[in-house]
Amino acid sequence: MTASFKGKTPSRRAFLKGSIAAGGAVFGASAAKAAEPDPLITEVQDWATGLGDGVDATPYGLPIKYESDVIRRNVEWLTADTISSINFTPIHALDGTITPQGCAFERHHSGAIELRKEDYRLMINGLVDTPLVFTYEDLERFPRENHVYFCECAANTGMEWAGAQLNGAQFTHGMIHNMEYTGVPLRTLLNEAGVQTEGKWVYVEGADASSNGRSIPLEKALDDVLVAFKANGEALRKEHGYPVRLVVPGWEGNMWVKWLRRVEVTTQAIQSREETSKYTDTLANGTSRKWTWVMDAKSVVTSPSPQSPIKHGHGPLVITGLAWSGRGAITGVDVSLDGGINWQPARLAQPGTAKALTRFYLDVEWNGEEMFLQSRARDETGYVQPSKAQLREVRGENSIYHNNCIQTWWVKPNGEAENVEVS
Amino acid sequence: MTASFKGKTPSRRAFLKGSIAAGGAVFGASAAKAAEPDPLITEVQDWATGLGDGVDATPYGLPIKYESDVIRRNVEWLTADTISSINFTPIHALDGTITPQGCAFERHHSGAIELRKEDYRLMINGLVDTPLVFTYEDLERFPRENHVYFCECAANTGMEWAGAQLNGAQFTHGMIHNMEYTGVPLRTLLNEAGVQTEGKWVYVEGADASSNGRSIPLEKALDDVLVAFKANGEALRKEHGYPVRLVVPGWEGNMWVKWLRRVEVTTQAIQSREETSKYTDTLANGTSRKWTWVMDAKSVVTSPSPQSPIKHGHGPLVITGLAWSGRGAITGVDVSLDGGINWQPARLAQPGTAKALTRFYLDVEWNGEEMFLQSRARDETGYVQPSKAQLREVRGENSIYHNNCIQTWWVKPNGEAENVEVS
């Protein structure tokens, strides 16, 4: 299987020409159409018959109405209330790596609040030489950085612990987004306040009613954490923490505190609700995995998938998906068509970058037989994404979070796909 | 002047502490406030007093209402009608490099039309072995690529030929956007049809009433041109050519044909309206510059700028802007505070990538004196962005397009900025 089109020219070209000769550029057209007129006459794109919208029509644009199904979706039965709930990025319908803010998944513990820049304050306190309170305008005066990072909820793919559940990449893997953030390194603000030698952790909290407080080791806080105010170039959307959120690259989304209100330097972890009763996983022996901050290497085929079935006939098929690792850059993705028996290297659209989504493609000729599609990522540390069986062996059956198992889509001869488990 | 914050810690930290000691984290606060209570008590961020919006509130989100001024804007007197006109990206208010589709500039010659994927057809004809017509679904079956590229209208900054005109980076430099495109290389489709040896050019046209036909040398068409269907991960917006537009990296935006309908392989250029009476520049000797496809290296300070004045007092100030080149990657940007007498290197947020926007920063201590802010980009070919005087010397005074001159903002002691020319 070659990755480039050129290597496949003969069959693909023959296929396309055959299709056209048979009556149209529509693939899978019946051979019975052979007697129809030249499609080049009937199938040419019509010209517009009138003028379109002027440049004053949409000062801020939205997707065209034909794409109204490419939206965030929540799952009603998943939580008791939409105020403390999640919705999912439509990753099955996206390509590339950037997630537009408008369809990037949300997770709130007490709803998305409205906070004006003018009213915004960020306190740095605790074990610092000088406690400080910054306004939004203050933050804009510190040197900024720009980085593309993924943000993944620790619960992403969590339903899969219990077996193949939700039918669609949006629902199994859509608690993730990937944006270009602009912000001030947290270390800059901590240095400004002067961290005292006893300080070993920071406790970060938001201004929403839940506060969503989390403890972060000082080493991470001084490394690549950003106090961010822009995503994909523009202000954070309300639901993403306007005007300021924390960006904790590679670490679970719950720590990316929105409406960031306070950073306290402490001697030890606070042991807050969000890091004790939540965001921990009970193992088979009854103890809990805790401080499971890093999101390990993971990948998923986004198309074909249950929400993105194959609608065309046999022949050329683009298999595509996303891979990511909280430990660094993705160095490779393998794809299996037969449930993990044989693997072939996918093509990375661009070289992987640290803690950001990487798009992969595998261009195949599909003969119409069923497939058990899987993808398997590896990162620059050499870590390889495990199977569901391997994960369960180590973690038991009681977990909710940090499921980075290999996902399987059963693609049927009719092109429809289903979430399944292979043993 | 150092680029990193650490090198500036003493003065900045002293400044911040001084500010807080004087009565608040608000910079520029009067010293008369010194007797006020500890700001850490009065200025802490309030907790939300209730719940926010649930995750079902915004299936597809928009910017928060407080950002309602960060929108595309057109200039009423610039064109006779908004149907054949332009609006401008609010670059003065953005950071990073990605432009959200919703506020990315539009240019139409007969308005933005609505075209369904189901109805879409792309013809490849002319000097090819087999004329082909592709459906949208066909295009999805070819190997895809992902690239971030800028798209700049040839007329961007065009008003500056006549001197400092429009007051704001949005209006002087906002005919530009930068997105991650997903598409099929045009060469793949041309190879599919089989380009005949006499073929030396392609003529590309859109389905809108203007057709906006342009000729492109075959060499470029076979190089990095994309037949794109996604931007920043999602479908192209209507106003950006849904469902399919051409992406012609580094070349003037007029060639990035939207609602792409047909690609004809020809022996020579068509000499269409858009490449003869338009998108050419009359020189002093009466002849016209033509085939000025490439957008040369250029940059602009986006903040401070007329629409983004300095609102805080003296001390730390972030100067930021964008740089780009149609010939490759940006390798450096210099910034001048005194109208081009002295220059200092800006910090690039990330290493420049070919034919894409690069964000630069210069972190300075502003003493409140007036500045004549300029930026000067250079690219990997060694080309250096020229002054307005240098451009006029070569091109005369009759041009409209391809003005990549150094821009000057006069920043006054009160922080307001104005578009000016320096001799």
Automatic annotation (TrEMBL), chains A, B:
Query: What Pfam families does the record tag this protein with?
Result: Mo-co_dimer, Oxidored_molyb
Please cite one Gene Ontology biological process associated with this protein: sulfur compound metabolic process
List, separated by semicolons, the cofactors it needs: Mo-molybdopterin
Q: Which UniProt keywords apply?
A: Metal-binding, Molybdenum, Oxidoreductase, Signal
The GO terms this record gives for MF are: heme binding; molybdenum ion binding; molybdopterin cofactor binding; sulfite oxidase activity
In this chain the Oxidoreductase molybdopterin-binding domain maps to 115-271
Specify the signal sequence span.
1-34
Cross-referenced InterPro entries: Ig_E-set (IPR014756), MoCF_OxRdtse_dimer (IPR005066), Mopterin_OxRdtase_euk (IPR008335), OxRdtase_Mopterin-bd_dom (IPR000572), OxRdtase_Mopterin-bd_sf (IPR036374), Sulfite_DH_SoxC (IPR030835), TAT_signal (IPR006311), TAT_signal_bac_arc (IPR019546)
Q: What is this protein called?
A: Sulfane dehydrogenase subunit SoxC
Origin organism is Lutimaribacter saemankumensis
